[in-house]
Specification:
The chain has 310 residues and is an all-alpha fold. The chain contains 14 helices and 2 strands; from the N terminus they run H-H-E-E-H-H-H-H-H-H-H-H-H-H-H-H. The chain starts with a helix and ends in a 10-residue tail after the last helix.
Length: 310
């Protein structure tokens, strides 16, 4: 029983009386720190809390600095992001333009909200040079078949092709984008593409004409027109299938007129290039062999070589 009494809690009278007399006195903690009575001294590791807050504030300031440091549209660095694509992305977008099919949106499946200017720029440049070169080669090959045809290098065709292609790829999408933006105010459900997406659609749609122009070197008129019609159908179908999800929310009349205008302008570009850069030979060169065969032989020979009459 004595051991149990020793283990019992005993209140120290001196300490209790001292605390009663001076309630505001300080007590000594296990670590030697003083804490006032009535308050609990809690040690909190404030470094972790303040460290996380400082990290969040630094992230916010970094984001704000990035937003402030965005270059203006008149600087070269602003347009640098539109050329930030790799070869696999460009090839995937070219394949998408060459194989159009209903329900397959070129913007949603291939651009994925990341339009580029690299592909359209080089497609237009390549098409312009190929048009000018093949247009000159057509006259060279015709001269080899008929020496009476006079050929001189036509370097101005490079300028004509470049101005025509680049104006078409920029001005027509600009007009289309402006019209769709205007119709968006009339039909709230319509969500038009951005201007760069529209330029990207038109730029990649012209890729099919590059091999077609090379095939136009074959001197068979009906085969040239066959290749041209096939390329026009593929390119126009790519435009129609891509623009249809945007214009279908509008009235039927507006959608039909808009898509018909798009196809008509595309056809005018293809037919105009065919007639200007691959113009047919003049009629006098085509009729000369027939006239020569119909004339008498003594009229074609010099007087010294004419046979003597017996």
């Amino acid at each position: 029983m004595a051991a149990a009494d020793e283990l019992a809690f005993h209140e120290f009278e001196e300490a209790s009386s001292l605390l009663a007399e001076t309630p505001d006195a300080a007590t000594t903690s296990g670590r030697g720190q003083l804490a006032p009575q009535g308050h609990v001294a809690v040690e909190v590791d404030s470094g972790g809390i303040y460290g996380s807050e400082e990290a969040e504030e630094s992230d916010k300031t970094a984001l704000l600095q990035e937003e402030k440091q965005q270059p203006g549209f008149w600087t070269f660095s602003y347009y640098q992001s539109f050329f930030d694509v790799d070869t696999s992305q460009v090839l995937d977008r070219i394949r998408g333009s060459l194989l159009p099919r209903p329900g397959h949106n070129f913007v949603r499946h291939h651009l994925r909200n990341r339009p580029d200017l690299y592909g359209p720029f080089w497609i237009c440049a390549t098409l312009a040079f190929v048009l000018a070169i093949t247009g000159n080669l057509t006259l060279v090959l015709a001269q080899r078949r008929d020496p009476s045809i006079h050929y001189s290098p036509q370097f101005h065709k490079v300028t004509v092709a470049g101005v025509t292609i680049y104006c078409y790829v920029w001005l027509v999408p600009l007009a289309l984008w402006g019209f769709l933006r205007w119709r968006k105010g009339v039909r709230e459900r319509m969500g038009p593409y951005t201007f760069l997406e529209t330029v990207c659609i038109y730029g990649y749609s012209l890729f099919v004409f590059i091999p077609t122009v090379v095939l136009w070197l074959i001197p068979v008129p009906w085969l040239q027109w066959l290749f041209g019609v096939m390329a026009l159908v593929l390119s126009a179908a790519s435009l129609v299938f891509t623009l249809w999800p945007v214009v279908r929310e509008d009235t039927r009349l507006v959608a039909a007129v808009l898509l018909s205008t798009v196809v008509l302008l595309h056809a005018l570009l293809a037919v105009g290039c065919k007639f200007y850069f691959f113009q047919p030979l003049p009629l006098e060169h085509l009729a000369l062999p027939a006239q020569a065969t119909s004339l008498p032989a003594n009229l074609l020979l010099p007087p010294t070589l004419r046979p003597k009459a017996t």
